[in-house]
Write a structure and sequence with these properties.
Blueprint: E1 2-5, E2 8-11, E3 33-35, E4 47-49, E5 55-59, H1 64-75, E6 82-86, H2 115-122, E7 128-129, E8 134-137, E9 142-145, H3 148-157, H4 175-190, H5 192-198, H6 202-222, H7 236-252, H8 267-277, H9 288-298
Parallel strand pairs: 3-4, 5-6
Antiparallel strand pairs: 1-2, 1-7, 5-8, 8-9
Helix pairs in contact: 1-3, 1-7, 4-6, 4-7, 5-6, 7-8
Bound molecules: glutathione.
Glutathione binds next to helix 3.
Length: about 325
Amino acid sequence: MGLLVDGVWQDQWYDTKSTGGRFVRKDSDFRSWITADGSAGPTGQDGFKAEAGRYHLYVSLACPWAHRALIMRKLKGLEAMIGVSTVHWRMLDRGWTFEEGPGVIPDSINGADFLHQVYTAAKPDYTGRVTVPVLWDKASAAIVNNESAEIIRMLNSAFDGIEATPGDYYPEDLRPEIHALNALIYDTVNNGVYKAGFATTQHAYEEAVRPLFETLDTLDRRLSSRRYLCGERMTEADIRLFTTLVRFDPVYVGHFKCNLRRIADYPHLSGYLRDLYQTAGIAETVNMHHIKAHYYESHKTINPTGVVPLGPVMDLDAPHGREGLIKEGASE
Ligand SMILES: N[C@@H](CCC(=O)N[C@@H](CS)C(=O)NCC(=O)O)C(=O)O
């Protein structure tokens, strides 16, 4: 674990001393957009035109943020248009690497051994964290964007005019609801598990865990009458929640101490997790080996031995029984 300072790699764990033991996530740095016509998007100065074969995604199969991008790429049928490189699951003093291993796809674009070399290829004096996902533009040798929330939104629609699979996961009429869900779920669940796991004081830990389970309780009730978070249509809010839920019982319960309840204990959230997992294309994006081995082998401050637990036994292919919930629920 480390970061780049003026383009030079430095090995450093997250600093929580100055924030009362709290893990505070930094904003992503590259914030431009791919758009249908190449006009600038909502953030960043440059617009990048949607073209088949022009872009490349750097991901980790372990990472819930990168996983969002992989799912959207799959659902929108963009595999042939946007290539992928997959880092090794173990992230230690050199950060993400392309060391050989099952499921690792080397960097065919920049020939990097370490992901930080991709960042310095785009910006030689870059200062900041070296995170996945990274959306790379081969035409200008630039990083378009390294913020998953924005990457999935551009993949949702930018390629629609050049034969992406139809499907809108950010429909206009549901946007206010999607924004509200995203805000709550990002803070208390997606990032909440990290705040709990990386906390270095009891107070900071409890401050993250309580709201996390309050939100899960609320979502479980909500999903008792709705197939998806916004009703009968799957949206980006579901994709964003899914990548945390699928890691919850195998990793966050034990490794991050998010153990008041398991997803398996929630009647509706557990069925919802299986329903999303069984949605065409999604299971292929889930690699449990990368997921478990990454967290347990990489975070030596939390798990110094690097021993990876064998359990839990999970059957994500078991029937979910949610087909009947096709009409929007009347109330929570
Ligand atoms: N806000 C970013 C967060 C990405 C992120 O933090 N990715 C993690 C992996 S799960 C990472 O690469 N961490 C490396 C580091 O922080 O040095 C996003 O959603 O894209």
